[in-house]
Inverse folding.
């Protein structure tokens, strides 16, 4: 009798361990690559998106997690659509006014891009899946990387924002050396056809990349779109180029111009 009881206890123990193990495996596999945050602990059904505006994707994901968590998580994606912050560094009042006009034109262009589904913006599109047993952190990180948005995981959710967050507007002197380099590149057809020759050589020397943006043209496909006139302005009378670029790009631009002996200071008395 005691032997039978021991066997029954052993079988029950094995079954309980097996059940606990299955529950544990289910918890692990329910959300693969799970983040250590509450917002990534609830498995949502697999959702397929095809060329869906990002704002709709974010809203759908938030709703799905809210339902799966029975209201415990109200929001996963926290999207910041604040326009690019632009700081001016004008040597004088006249150039300051030119910068204002340039920035105003860029703002209009920024609004147009945001409404036409360009990358960097919430109107951009996404084709892919969310949920279905996979971590939302993984999927959202891939999404943000694919459409050039900023991304950070925090306790309160996934923060996604427009990139870049800030630009500087600076003035650069057109030197004789820069003109000579322009003529040399013109002879070898090594200039961008979508830009003024002097602007093209300036962009090449400084490695400023704000003139090119990615535009989605199909599921998981992108093409490059040029906007030289939106981020550069050639002031012929003043022999200057105004440039809109990130602080890091502006710092590198100055360094590269100096290294190539193409740098000249822009004084406050510049016309």
């Amino acid at each position: 009798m005691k032997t039978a009881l021991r066997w029954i206890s052993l079988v029950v123990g094995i079954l309980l361990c097996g059940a606990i193990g299955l529950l544990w495996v289910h918890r692990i596999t329910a959300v693969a690559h799970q983040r250590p945050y509450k917002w990534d602990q609830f498995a949502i059904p697999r959702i397929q998106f095809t060329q869906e505006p990002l704002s709709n994707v974010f809203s759908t994901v938030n709703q799905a997690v809210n339902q799966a968590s029975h209201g415990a998580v109200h929001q996963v994606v926290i999207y910041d659509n604040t326009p690019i912050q632009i700081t001016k560094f004008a040597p004088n009042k006249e150039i300051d006014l030119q910068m204002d006009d340039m920035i105003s034109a860029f703002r209009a262009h920024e609004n147009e891009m945001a409404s036409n589904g360009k990358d960097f913006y919430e109107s951009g599109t996404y084709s892919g899946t969310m949920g279905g047993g996979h971590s939302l952190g993984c999927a959202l990180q891939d999404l943000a990387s694919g459409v050039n948005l900023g991304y950070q995981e925090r306790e309160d959710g996934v923060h996604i924002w427009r990139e870049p967050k800030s630009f500087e507007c600076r003035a650069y002197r057109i030197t004789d050396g820069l003109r000579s380099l322009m003529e040399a590149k013109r002879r070898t057809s090594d200039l961008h056809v979508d830009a003024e020759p002097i602007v093209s050589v300036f962009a090449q020397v400084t490695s400023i990349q704000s003139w090119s943006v990615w535009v989605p043209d199909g599921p998981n496909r992108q093409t490059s779109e040029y906007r030289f006139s939106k981020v550069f302005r050639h002031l012929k009378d003043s022999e200057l180029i105004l440039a809109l670029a990130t602080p890091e790009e502006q710092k590198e631009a100055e360094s590269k111009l100096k290294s190539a002996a193409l740098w000249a200071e822009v004084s406050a008395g510049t016309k």
Q: What stands out?
A: The chain has eight helices and eleven strands. Helices lie at 2-30, 54-68, 93-115, 136-146, 176-187, 197-206, 228-231, 247-259. The longest strand covers residues 166-173. Residues 31-81+125-161 form a domain with the Phage tail protein beta-alpha-beta fold fold (CATH 3.55.50.30).
